[in-house]
Write a structure and sequence with these properties.
Length: 466
């Protein structure tokens, strides 16, 4: 190779290198996020990540030890996904409220299939807003007011069936919250196939946390079959409703009355979704309350006195409870708040970054899951002094902003919170004024499946006060 060829070759290579470096520089400058570091933390084993650690120990310990080691924003890898966990109130607000558009709700595909792809939790944007408006209409205080006495009848009947019995609190509370959910969805109409609906729902829930293998004989397969039957039952209820002339104020009425119209499939997915959101959550909270009241006699005494005062005000008459009565229960309401905080039955929620997001100086890459850790926020001594202590009086003063989120925050926050509180208050009214109970067996264990629950669902023995 002569000198000129050599020179030309070097020039060409230099030009290519320059082009390459220039493109790199351009990419570096235009994609500002890329230069940011990922949050601190560990991704654990390939694929499994740290799932095993999370599900094999108390989530309090798992989250708290991570936060202690890495700070309030950290990376981990659970359930096959890289995740960023956040545990400061400000960051949770950013993800759930201020920058909610950058973080979409996300669930495993198998769960979407099981509940119904069109259910409210899985959506963002216009369809979500439309559904949310319809759900809120059915669960706003004005609507709940009209069903307080019906909720009370369910509570009285439920408690009567436990008299003199040993029961598993969680199982029985699930029956109560299921019946209240059906009341709020279908109103007082006699529901054709009510028992069939319950039977299918129980099969569906059994398979909810199973391996998503849709082969005959598997729990998942049975659940999917039950889900199909549930869809058919709701379709039947819908067609009966269509033949009725008058308006209904319940959730089904709200869905059916929408001018733009929801399809039958959309209605079915959302009805099954609301049962799912309403039942186990409220039943877990009620179970914890029964436990905390049994463990704290002075709190139980104060709640009982408050409830007895309401009975006295009614002068012993068998008058039904009203929404106004439930507003005269500040002590009982604080017990509910403190239980929601201490038990934090939903330890966290999931979102997914829809694009690369810069977050407190770190990069959250597109597609990564983001987990606001409600439990950590509720158990931080900065937000709640002596956080492990059950002390309802702490709610005599309002908590600091964004530190108390048992019902979430922002566009996906719980539209059923009013109903949940009312059905808990009504049951507690009759439980504390008419009954005494004692917890049977060991009382300190906690099980997670997926909600935090007292061990074995809290077996108790209940008897009428004499
Ligand atoms: C004490 C009981 C309850 C607790 C602790 C609770 C908690 C929550 C939380 C934390 C969220 C937000 C999840 C997220 O942001 O990812 C949520 C959403 C939801 N909850 Fe509840 N909930 C309870 C009872 C209920 C009841 C009784 C109903 C129905 C009547 C209900 C219906 C819903 C629905 C439909 C959503 C989804 C809202 C949306 O995506 O826009 N919940 N709940």
């Amino acid at each position: 190779m002569d000198f000129t060829t050599m020179f030309m070759f070097c020039l060409f290579v230099s030009f290519l290198s320059f082009l390459f470096l220039f493109r790199l520089l351009l990419k570096f400058l235009t994609s500002g996020h890329r230069k940011l570091p990922l949050p601190p933390g560990s991704l654990g084993w390939p694929y499994i990540g740290e799932t095993f650690q999370l599900y094999s120990q108390n989530p309090n310990v798992f989250f708290a030890s991570k936060v202690k080691k890495y700070g309030s924003i950290l990376k981990t890898h659970i359930l096959g996904c890289p995740c960023v966990m956040i545990s400061s109130p400000e960051a949770a607000k950013l993800v759930l409220v201020t920058k909610a558009a950058l973080f979409k709700p996300t669930f495993p595909a198998s769960k979407e299939r099981m509940l119904g792809k069109q259910a409210i939790f899985f959506h963002q944007g216009e369809y979500h807003s439309k559904l949310r408006k319809l759900v809120i209409r059915a669960f706003m205080p004005e609507a709940i007011k009209n069903i307080v006495s019906d909720i009370e009848s369910i509570a009285i009947e439920t408690l009567k069936s436990w008299e003199g019995q040993s029961i598993t609190t969680y199982q029985e509370m699930k029956t109560y919250t299921f019946n209240v959910a059906l009341l709020s969805i279908f109103g007082k109409d006699e529901i054709l196939d009510r028992e069939e609906l319950k039977r299918c729902y129980y099969i569906l829930e059994k398979g909810y946390n199973s391996m998503p293998i849709n082969l005959p004989g598997t729990l998942f397969h049975k659940s999917m079959k039950a889900r199909k039957e549930l869809g058919q039952i709701v379709a039947k209820i819908l067609s009966i409703r269509r033949q009725m002339k008058h308006d209904h104020k319940d959730l089904l009425g709200s869905f059916m009355g929408d001018q733009e119209g929801l399809t039958d499939e959309q209605i079915a997915d959302n009805i099954i979704g609301v049962i799912f959101a309403a039942r186990d959550t409220t039943a877990s909270v009620l179970t914890w309350i029964v436990k905390y009241l049994a463990e704290n006699p002075s709190v139980l005494q104060a709640v009982t006195e408050e409830q007895e005062e309401i009975v006295r005000e009614k002068r012993g008459e068998e008058k039904a409870l009203t929404r106004a009565d439930t507003k005269k229960m500040p002590m009982t309401s604080r017990v509910i708040q403190e239980t929601l905080r201490v038990a934090s039955i939903l330890s966290f929620t999931f979102r997914e970054a829809v694009e690369d997001v810069e977050f407190e100086g770190y990069l959250i890459p597109k597609g990564w899951k983001v987990l606001p850790l409600f439990r950590n926020i509720h158990h931080s001594p900065e937000n709640f002094p002596e956080p492990e202590k059950f002390d309802p009086s702490r709610f005599e003063v309002a908590p600091k902003p964004n530190t108390f989120m048992p019902f979430g925050n922002g566009t996906h926050s719980c539209p059923g919170n009013e109903l949940a509180k009312v059905e808990i208050l009504v049951l507690l009214h009759h439980l504390t004024t008419k009954y005494r109970w004692s917890v049977m067996g060991p009382q300190n264990g906690i099980q997670y499946g997926p909600f935090a629950l007292p061990q074995n669902g809290l077996p108790i023995r209940l008897s009428l006060k004499t």
